[in-house]
Amino acid sequence: MQGITLFQYSLIYNAFSFTLAAMAATTLFLWISRSDVAAPYRTAVTISGLVTAIAAYHYWRIFNSWEAAYDVRNGVVAATGYAFNDAYRYVDWLLTVPLLLVELVLVMRLDPADARSKSLTLGFAAALMIVLGYPGEVAADIPTRALWGTLSAIPFVYIVWQLFSGLGASIERQPGAVKGLVKQARLLTFASWGFYPIVYMAPYVHLSGADATTTIQLGYTIADLIAKAVVGLLVFNIAVRKSQLEAA
After folding, report:
1. Which of 205 and 187 is assigned the larger pLDDT?
2. What is the reported pTM?
3. I need a surface site. Which of 22, 78, 94, 101 has the fewest CB within 10 A?
């Protein structure tokens, strides 16, 4: 990509660096604090840490790829000839997005059969959403991007429907002290996931080159921080409160 400014390069560089550190720190906190919650909720906390661990690894790869793709000398950014590999994001999402839904289901402590059913169906829908979105992400023309984006939106709508309808009754049965937190986790999951398609559609408004890359990379990075680190810490808080209630 030609024409990227030093400001744009540095903005993306620092965003990747910050997110890598945030994901790694969240992973350590969740796994070290796993013993602070009751046994039924430790799997949810472990999975939350696994999500951020996978994200930290991929942000390390993304960061290195970005650094290798450009050379900065005397305030001028020049392409090195190595292509920036953005496919790491989709590999990450294919693993972490289904797990994000599983951790939310597990921390609610549903009936085992119900939890297993919802984890499988939501996890499959999430994986399908990512697989269908990737061809559009790498497409060179808007019609192809729009086609695959529309197909990817089908499982996305199903997931949103499950979050607000399929899990609605289960959330209402949660203890009063944590019901609000569970709703916040659901809302944050929906809000952060809703941000991805907005970023995905950036080229639709005729953004191109360095401007499109900056918008897409920063947008996806912000959404990742909220969906994985922030929601993971919220799941941990829910697990702690439910553990305290059950102990009392």
Report:
1. 187
2. 0.89
3. 78
